[in-house]
């Protein structure tokens, strides 16, 4: 049957009532998830237990473990990854010295997206064809996009960290979560049940698919939230902020979930306040990136700060040469992904790392900002546009929207194998004449701000 069959809609409504809601959550978290984990040949639950044990230790012991892991990934990279093998030889770098003093790491240069793109397969410890791997494209909000490859162990640890972090804020397996996702205009109604249906059941998760954040789109989102009432809702803060403003304006506020988990872009203090007040929820921030996964989380709430998961990577921050007020840029060395180790990776995000008796914390965070672009009179977030270009159009290395022209100009850097005519045809199919399309090179993309930072939208 189709996923929109009346019986399935009735079942969804039925299982949103108590006590069936709790029974479903227990069956999902403690029966379906282990089955799914086994079928997908993944190992996540033991890693969650490992994280619980690690963070039950005092910081002194955790720091020692982190330094040992730092030295281990450096030794591995120097032996197995061509780029690092050559770099270590040129620098006469000895990974064992890091165990005595982690500051020895500063003898190595910073890793950037430019280096990753330039080095290509020389960043890998083994050919992709020889192992199970997962490709993850960076968003491009802090530099031109590149692709990061995870091995299975690294991907499983990344999932475990998310599970553990949410567990710390009360999101246990039997409590439901809801994710905001892009709705594609040519999306067909799938058959039920599918692999994705079972995955969502096992995760006790549902999705809200949206493609607009005007009043009509926000009303649809609000009605869906009121019907499902998840424990945790996860989205970009700009989307949730737009919803909070709409609900406050139209309904005087309302409550449909307990926790809002913000990710993907900077959570501004004002937006946090409005979301918490209008939607009557706890707001939890996290810091993650496609290159490494979730690396910091407000596990003890806003007052506790953004705690770095030093079990997963070594944090640094360097004073930026391009920011006049002496802001710090965040740098990470990841521990888990041995297919494509990232050592001293300069994230492009501004944050300062502070070490206390409780752990490493991020302060003065300035992250990615996703703009809103009008398309045919309807407001669309840029992450929706990016999803459309990546998953429906394809063949695009990078894009930028110039709002200084009428209509806006969509500047596209094509993959070498892509075709301009075919790409234009697909763009017109989805967005008609909303954009003037220009095919450009990377050097033609506009840099904005005092840091000459890449942004998907140029407004001035």
UniProtKB/TrEMBL annotation:
SUPFAM superfamilies: Acetyl-CoA synthetase-like. InterPro entries: ANL_N_sf, CapK_Type1_Caps_Biosynth. It comes from Trinickia symbiotica. It comes from the Bacteria. This is CoF synthetase. PANTHER family: CAPSULAR POLYSACCHARIDE BIOSYNTHESIS PROTEIN.
